[in-house]
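During the second year of the project, the team shifted from modelling isolated chains to modelling whole assemblies. The rationale, set out in the original proposal, was that interfaces cannot be judged from single-chain predictions alone. As a representative example for this report, we include one of the complexes processed in the last quarter. Its constituent sequences, exactly as entered into the pipeline, are reproduced here:
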Amino acid sequence: MASALSFSLPHAGHEASAERALASRAQRGEVEAFEELYRAHAGRVFALCLRLTGDRVQARELTQDVFVKAWEALPEFRGESSVTTWLHRIAVNAMLMQRRSERRRLARVSLAEDDVDDAHEVNEGSTAPVDVATAVDLERAVAALPPGVRRAFVLHDIEGYSHEEIARMTGLAAGTLRAQLHRARQLLMRALRP
Amino acid sequence: MTDHLSFDQLCDLQDGALDLRDASAARDHMRSCAACAEQFAELSALGSAAAALPRVIDPPADLWGDIRAELAPRQPRRFAREYHWSRSNLVAAAAVIAVVSSALTAVAIRRVDPRPDTVVAAAAAAPEPATAVAVALPARLAMTEVGYTKSVEALQRTLAERRSSLAPSTVATVERSLRIADSAIAEARTALAQDPGNKALVKLFASNYERKIDLLRRATELSPRT
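Output from the structure prediction step:
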């Protein structure tokens, strides 16, 4: 399925070199060039953030965070991956950081990712059932997934990253990732059944 | 394979994660097991639907403005610019900053304050350098200003080192241009202190700093004895 796709090199040569030129100008401090990069990538980054967070307000904050971080990290960008992949990596890291901060804030100490996901799943029955009738409901069902399994599903089945790429982005072990992905599919199939 | 396929096996089959022998056995099983075949079809449909979701969703239209206001100025790099600016360019640039900034500040204030002239007049009456004006800004803006100030200071040090190589008239022009830029920053700053939630003012404040930094950068790139 989607895992066979690679988004590491999504651009044709000309487009990629134009993008590198833009990144290079932005590295020199040209905000206008950075704005062009923003205009070219904001839609994909926002879509990713929206699906990772499942919430429009959080997605806006995360997208803003991604581009501010990208600006700060631009001097280190070497063009070894596409700008899209680079921005997606920043988005995933920013989301992980936000979740860690939130966990600290809630004083839930020493919970591993899976434990947190399980905690969400335990409460699943108490949440309102997902209203599924049309294809749009897939988005709603994805948004209702517990955060960890949602991330696995979004990155793998929607964005098309391979297990290895996701493991590099998130630092998750392959086994954990596989379990989260399968769990996400199981929950979605259950939610989407008429 | 007599039992039903597990959900993990079905997922692995879909992901191409089973070796050839296991994949072949799983497919053989599904030929004679309607339940597994149906579940695999459902799984495949979910995968297709997920892959078909739009990759692009338009962000809120005003998001760039918020991002722009948070971008700290980048430290200048040596050899970043190959062109040189003349004194007249600097004067013109500073004049543009002053005129445009004042006009924009007035417009931004008018959007929310029925008595804009009072504020603008107060700002114009105190054209101190922005860093010297002790008007409290919201924490986020204050942090942004710290970033700008660092860049300004670094450039000012570079300019001070080059000062003796520039013609006295050029130094005077640069200083006059910087005073104009500072005045524009102070004006926006004063207005912001009174209306910290005004996004147009936030942008103006940031862009005034950007312009001052640009002015300084250009000044440091002036040819000796210009």
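DSSP finds nine helices and no strands in chain A. Confidence is low (pLDDT under 50) at residues 1-12, 108-134 of chain A.
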